[in-house]
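Board notes (copied after class):
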Amino acid sequence: MKHLLTPILLITAMGLQAQEDMPVVWETKLGHRFDYTGTGTEDRGYSYAADDKEMTVFDNKTGATKWTGRYKDVTPKLNKVDELIPFWESDAVFLFDRKTGKDQIAVLELATGKMLWNTDKYQNLSDENVVYIPEKDGFAISLKDRLVFVKAKTGEELWNTDKFKGVAGQYVATPDGKLVMVNFVPGNLGALFTGFKNQIVK
C-alpha cells in the first residue's frame, strides 16, 4: 500500500474512551521518509515502512526497529525501487526496479532483511500474477507465455509450463503432491482481443 507520510510513526491505542483520552502506546522516528507501509497481523507482530531507497521493519507492540537498511546495501543490484509487494504468509517482500529497461527483482525475508534471491528473468510482475502456495513453500508466477514455479527461499525454478495462460485465480494442492490451478478471468475486452479462455490445469 502506498502513502505519502512524514517520517514519524505514531500509534495510538484504540479503545472505548473518547478520542482525546486515548493514550499514546509508542512513538518513534524513522531515519527516512515512507511512501509505502504495511501492517502485519497481531500474530505476526511486525510491520514495515519504506521509501524508494530504504526500508524499516518494526515491532508492532513496542515500535522497536527489527531491521532497517538501504536497498543498495541489502541487494546486489537495486539502488532504488519503484514498487514493493509483501507476501506476509511467506515472510517475503518483492522489490522491483522497473526503470533499467529490464525489471530487476530482489526478494527479502521480511522479518530480518536478509536477501533471499534476485533475478531479471521475470518481467511485468504484479501482486495479481504472483501467488504464494504454502503447501509447497513456493511461488507460482504467471507470465505472458508460461507459468513457472519457484522455491520461496531460493528462487530456484522447479518447473514451468506453457499450457497455462493467465493469472492463477484458485488452486488446490492434492495429497499426492499435485497442483490443480484455475486461471483468473481478465476483463472482457482484454479477453476478446487475446482470445483468452478459462482453464483448469493439473
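Comment from the instructor: Residues 122 and 143 are 7 Å apart (CA to CA). Residues 188-194 form the longest helix (7 residues).
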